[in-house]
Design a protein that fits this description.
By secondary structure, this protein is mainly α. Helix content is 70%, strand content 2%. The chain has helices at residues 22-30, 70-90, 93-100, 110-126, 128-138, 141-158, 164-190, 198-250, 273-302, 307-335, 337-361, 368-385, 387-390, 392-397, 405-433, 439-464; strands spanning 11-13, 42-43, 55-57. It has a three-stranded antiparallel sheet.
């Protein structure tokens, strides 16, 4: 944004949150900011003296965001459809883990089987290191198309897999790479159309993963005994195909591609202490997130709960996650993105220690009390952990320019992917040391969320201090 007869305007931002009326936002975008510590986005005549209190952004960030309209919401629909397929598969790993451990791979220990799913999650996030910058430079079209081919093809080949290396190739490598190619542009594209309502829009799109996590475990549970593993998986693949056609038609970017821009990540951005702490916080919570998703079904089977209900527990978690992905995003647009994720991560920690631990150690056996506690945990943890997917990209996007959103998001999740790679196998080894018991796994999950909570609080304190009422 430029002023008449002057060079490009320089912006600073102390916070992007708060219920800012459209009219007031437009006025502040047109006139200079009178106070460099303002909580609104405005024009600054002088550069801020403290980089922790304000950051310089490009003038294009001042360009009006659509914040709605047919084109903007069609991108959200396309992202929802892409997330329904890609994260729907990710949220179904518990069902596949339970089935393979009792059928094709019954002779393998849990820790070994866990590598199939940890490698899948690792690639889903790690590949973003290149996908994000390519999105910034060229847009989403070819990325989503390539991801669709890999995801559908990997699912169809998964149907005929019988050996361990078959599952590594089809589920882990093809499925993980395809997931990354789809969800990275799906999330980043929303940031081109929404600023004030970015948390709400991203949360709505992210609910696609929860819907998939509800539908696909129930579909597979029903189809496994009726048509067998192969055709049940193929049917899921055909559903993916339909959903990804919609995603390819609707996902698009608003800003023109950066012609000649670098497609390589820039790790110098970790010099920003707030970004480094945010990345560490995301690392810890993602390290813990996939442990309940992967082991809750086998956990229920271990304590004598029926197979049908054990598979349904994953759908219960994702039902809670549906609301947990949308509602915190909506609240975050008013109370602050970091404030909201701190609250939800704290709730994950409470749910793990107050409900999952007692269900494993106190209420042993398939008693009604055990089942009730497990159901409450599934719903509560699903709701609290929903923000682990929907709010983290919004928090990262708050720290960078819109044109660099893909690069920042991908660089963050490249490191996060290491936690995703190691979390499930570490949990399997902890169970092996504990003789198949789950209390050690649960403690490890709680420690992950405690670490994430500390990092997010530290990032917030660096930016706005210890003021509890600050919107950030």
């Amino acid at each position: 944004m430029t002023q008449q007869g002057s060079g490009p305007a320089v912006l600073h931002e102390a916070s992007l949150e708060g219920p800012i009326p459209d009219q007031e936002r437009e006025l502040r975008a047109l006139e200079p900011a009178k106070n460099s510590s303002s909580t609104f986005v405005g024009l600054a005549e002088d550069a801020p003296p403290n980089p922790r209190q304000a950051r310089t952004v490009k003038a294009s960030d001042a360009a009006p965001y659509p914040e709605g309209g047919l084109r903007a919401w069609s991108v959200v629909v396309g992202s929802f459809s892409g997330m329904l397929a890609s994260f729907g598969l990710m949220n179904t790993i518990g069902t596949f883990q339970a089935y393979l451990s009792t059928h094709q791979l019954a002779h393998y220990p849990d820790g070994t089987i866990g590598w199939i799913f940890s490698l899948y999650v690792f690639l889903a996030f790690f590949c973003g290191i290149q996908i994000g910058p390519i999105f910034d430079a060229y847009g989403p079209r070819w990325l989503v198309a390539a991801g669709s081919l890999l995801l559908v093809g990997g699912t169809m080949l998964l149907a005929v897999s019988t050996k361990f290396w078959h599952f590594i190739l089809t589920f882990s490598i093809l499925g993980g790479t395809g997931t990354s190619l789809i969800f990275t542009p799906a999330i980043s594209s929303i940031g081109h159309y929404f600023l004030r309502a970015r948390g709400t829009a991203t949360g709505l799109a992210a609910t696609g993963g929860s819907v998939g996590g509800i539908l696909f475990p129930l579909i597979l549970q029903r189809l496994f005994p009726l048509v067998g593993f192969a055709w049940a998986t193929r049917i899921m693949g055909f559903i993916f195909m339909f959903l990804l056609i919609i995603a390819n038609l609707l996902i698009r970017s608003r800003l023109p591609p950066k012609v000649g821009g670098s497609v390589w990540p820039d790790f110098r951005i970790f010099k920003d202490e707030i970004f480094a702490l945010t990345t560490a916080g995301v690392f810890f919570i993602e390290w813990g997130l996939f442990l309940p998703l992967s082991y809750i079904s086998t956990y229920a089977l271990h304590y004598g709960i029926s197979a049908s209900f054990s598979y349904q527990l994953l759908a219960v978690v994702n039902a809670g996650s549906f609301f947990g992905r949308w509602l915190p995003g909506y609240v975050a647009d008013y109370l602050g993105r970091f404030n909201t994720i701190i609250l939800t991560v704290a709730l994950c920690l409470v749910m793990t220690l107050a409900l999952w631990m007692p269900a494993a150690e106190v209420l042993r056996g398939p008693t009604s009390a055990n089942v009730a506690v497990l159901c409450v945990f599934a719903v509560g943890f699903g709701f609290a952990s929903g923000s682990n997917i929907s709010l983290t990209p919004v928090c990262v996007g708050q720290l960078c320019e819109t044109e660099s959103y893909g690069r920042y998001y991908a660089t963050c999740y490249t490191l996060v992917s290491v936690g995703c790679l190691t979390g499930i196998p570490i949990a399997g080894q902890i169970m092996a040391v504990d003789g198949g018991q789950y209390w050690g796994l649960i403690i490890f999950t709680a420690m992950c969320y405690a670490g994430g909570l500390v990092c997010f609080i530290a990032a917030r304190v660096l930016k706005v201090g210890w003021k509890v009422t600050a919107i950030y």
